[in-house]
Structure prediction request, 206 residues.
Amino acid sequence: MTSSDFNRIRHLTFVLINAYHSVNSAATQEALYAQISDEMYQLSETLAPFIRDIKSPTLTKEGAEKLLASVKDEVVPFEFPTKAVIQKLFNKVKKLQVPEVDHLELRDYTYFAWNDLASHRKYMLVKHAGQMRGIYGTIGTDTKKNTCAICSQTSQVVQFMALTKSNVDGTYTKNGNYICLDSDACNHQMQHELGLANFVSTVLPK
Prediction:
């Protein structure tokens, strides 16, 4: 199970709890439960005990958090590369500053990224097509509230632009999109990986 899968499960769980406490129709509650349980089964068949446990109109948010803690144990942590591997992924970058991650819960990450405010760059480590990729690009100085291309949630976004192609005449092409300025928040909001995959395909060098 990925971090984004867990985020989706958590979101669906609280949608169901809100319905338990705001919708009086038992039939409506049961229909929503059936829809949500089906989606959860599609994410992981190991969720069967959890799905049974949330079939309770008296379930509280506090109770759900306790149940979700056991589900999170099944999340595969993001495989953070060694500093030597990261240097190789960003071999064109001089004096790369790599953040320490020992204090982080890597189960919370589908990808990892950090901002270098001095150079106005964002660096990203992403598993794409079965291999770890290092991507970097410039980020603007202005943020705005809009939809992030990666997590598909409304957030404070910034324009990210990466060099994607060098032409024979010496010119080059840049591509990118608006993504969350805070990549930690982006990871916590992500409920599927389609946006991330599309974004990476756009900004990878051609």
About this structure: The first strand starts at residue 112 and ends at 116. The helical segments are 3-22, 26-43, 48-53, 61-72, 83-89, 183-189, 194-203. The chain has a mean pLDDT of 93.
